[in-house]
Amino acid sequence: MRNHLSGRRIGHLCSLIAGLCLFALLACPVWADVPVYRGEPSGEFLRTWLLCGPFRLKDLDDSAPIVVHLPGFETDFLKEHGGETDPRIEEGQTVTFDGGSNKWFTYTTDGFSVDLDEAISPDMFLVGYGYCEIESPEDRVCVLALGSNDGCRVWLNGERIWDHPEARGITADDDLVAVTLRKGRNKLLLKVEERGNVWGFCVRFLPFEAEKFADRSQLFRVVTGEDGRAVLRFLQPASVAKRIVKTARLEAVSVDEPERVLWSEDWSKEREMHIGPEADQYGKYLLRIKTVLMDGSEWTQTYHFAAGKRTEHVLFDQGKTDYAIVVGEEASESEKWAANELQHWLREVSGAEFPIRSDAGMPGEHEIVVGFNRRARALLGPAPATPDDGDESFTYRNVGPSIVIWGGKQRGTMYGVMTFLERELGCRWYTPRVSVVPKKDRYAFDHLRHSESPGIRVRNDFYHEAFEPIWAARQKVNGAMNYREQPGGVEAYWAVHTFYHLVRPSEFFAEHPEYYSLINGERVHAGAQLCVTNPDVVRIATERLKQVMRDYPGNLIYSLSQNDWRNPCQCDKCAAIVEREESESGPIIWFVNRVAEQIEDEFPDKFVGTLAYSYTRKPCKTLKPRHNVVVRLCSIECCFAHDFLSCPENKSFVEDLLGWAAIAPHLYIWDYVVNFDHYTMPYPNFRVLQSNIRTFRDNKAIGIMEQAAYQSRGGEFAELRAYVIAKLLWNPDCDVERVIDDFMYGYYGRSGQHVRRYFDLLHSRLTPETHIHLGLRPDDPLFSDEFVRQAEAIFDEAEAVADTEEIRQRVEMARLPIMYLKCLRVPLEAKFDGTYSRFCEIVEREGITHYAERGEPHRVGFHKKVEAAK
Description:
Blueprint lengths: L6 H21 L2 E2 L3 E4 L9 E9 L37 E4 L2 E4 L1 E4 L5 E2 H4 L6 E11 L3 E10 L2 E5 L2 E6 L10 E7 L2 E11 L5 E8 L2 H7 L3 E5 L5 E5 L3 H7 E10 L2 E10 L5 E4 L7 E11 L4 E10 L5 E5 L6 E4 L5 H18 L5 E3 L8 E4 L3 H7 L13 E6 L2 E6 L4 H14 L2 E2 L5 E2 L5 E4 L3 E4 L5 E5 L6 H6 L4 E2 L10 E4 L4 H4 L2 H4 L9 E2 L2 E2 L11 H17 L3 E5 L12 H10 L3 H15 L7 E6 L16 E6 L16 H13 L3 E6 L13 H12 L3 E7 L10 H13 L5 H12 L4 H13 L20 H16 L4 H21 L1 H6 L2 H12 L9 H13 L2
Parallel strand pairs: 2-8, 23-24, 23-25, 25-27, 32-41, 33-34, 34-37, 37-38, 38-39, 39-40, 40-41
Antiparallel strand pairs: 1-2, 3-6, 3-8, 4-5, 7-14, 8-13, 9-12, 9-14, 10-11, 10-13, 15-16, 16-19, 17-18, 17-20, 20-21, 22-30, 26-27, 26-31, 28-29, 35-36
Helix pairs in contact: 5-7, 11-13, 12-13, 15-16, 16-17, 17-18, 18-19, 19-20, 20-22
């Protein structure tokens, strides 16, 4: 092996050494009378400086704010030599001042920071200067990265670019300032004060990377003056504004209506600029600044600000109020109901009596106006249009001291009132039996403005608890399987599996077997379907569905759908459509389209619904549902441990969902959130609820039914799940963890922390390999005897701290699924330790009739199994 360098390698080494020497020459300072740095921004700390000091200052007295410099700091000690804004400095120069003189001297630090205790003086309440120059071959924007102990002011080429008046410890890059180094020499002057303990500074120049800088440092701030006008301030030196910002578009919106732009304008690139909107009363806003930087990168930031004169309005104080509730003479029944709800719950919160008055009377100064009536129009002016009666969107806002709550007459205003009570006053209606209302001595406001719209048009929370009409109205649940009397009414879906309801075999099969499925060459009706291509079947189904719509006009959607089993017709006509459409959904859509077409003239605002379920779940290849047809897609085969989009087991369902969304004008989802084989057993599916509902919303779902434990109380976390589902159906983007926590601590009181621990323990058992379906069994690997023991210990703690006996019984209901699981896994132990007898007592007390969808047979079988265990 050769042990010496070749000529070529020696040449490379020499080039490398020369390059390093050049870098060192550029990066390190050179000086005669002043340290001069070249090659910036290098990212290296500036270690050699001219320093001058100390100059004596005074300590702040106790009455002075701590966010100002020490007395005497504002004195320009350099005025003999150009002053702080035009310094003419060299080494050895003498600076005279009252009480003495100092000389400029060169100081080099071994570390990243300059220690002024060592370099100038260890005394307290002083100020000193640091000076150097930077030589730049061209104009360039870079970042001055600064740290100081304590206060510090910085000038670059005479422009004051930074000021920090408070005491602090030294931290590298504590402040980042965008600066312009102009071509040639640049003068950098620092003035640092000592407020006690130690003092010093560190400085370096970094390359300007627009996106990183924007993320790390503020470019702007919004402040509101005493006159109520908002001002946008540019926080970086004025000299760099035009060098780093190409354009900046300003948009102001209300915090409660962020989609509606109230004011917009281009930034003037001045240090200060007045921004809109011109507020006739106090309001809270967001300013969005959409910036294009000089390097082409885009950057958007949002700032909260207020504008207008702030006035506090007192709604109630110490059980008294000046306010009255105003309802229109032509108010709907739901608006009248909402006004009474508002009166009742305000009384519960405040102890004050809010009288209800008609808008026909004389207006008062302090009113809560319910509905878009004549009083609302007088207060709001011409801007808001009269909402459609069926519009469920709502707004509440103050106009001076008065509050207006309005939306559509049918349910919008009502939902606005309930949200006002919930959001502003903290009212909660956790279950039909449990409402929690905070008691308040006083409530005042300066700004009220809030709007909402439903995320899903038809919201069907299919829990037994959710069927109670008053609770459903308070929770904005407007969907139902069949019509029910409820404040504001419901968007009902008439029936399901209706083939034999409309074309009954008992009525037609004997004379017209051709109306029913041809299976293996024989017409049958038992466990079969209709022959949907038969013209007489189309005619009969149309006539009878029309009659249903006349007899039951309160529904939105009327079902024309397959029976709850298989065996579709195999006749030539039906089979031809199946072959062409590559799905059994083909004949169904062909059939339903024809019926819907003949119904439309008489019922233009109604829909005909059908199922994409089981053997018809796959969408058609070429046929498309009519505009008045709703396809009801069912997720019955899915895994509910993981959301639809992430689980391989759900891939085919998602494909079908996307397929239907591509061809159907409307989808209505029949989703499942319960274990039908064991209502009363742990079922950890909460983590998928939000994602799945969002997926449905994003794919044309006008309605969602979340089928659950619908025959009786006693479903696992039924109260919590019904509450969470109601919130998600109204707003699929709500903070679901916050909703769960709110329920846990509001419904279970002090026990809620422990119930939440159990909830998290249960859901922590899920892994990517865990799949649960609608028939989860007690012996599933998801569960274990150790899990049951851990859960029992947690519930023991929850019961021990229960605030009241009523709350302890609520905790028992949350514990019931663990008791049920234990009874099925280890029945002998459950009988021996009292678990089974306690389970039976709770079931009796709470009136629970269904442990599973099968009802009585399952309940009897459960008790026989446990009692027979030996």
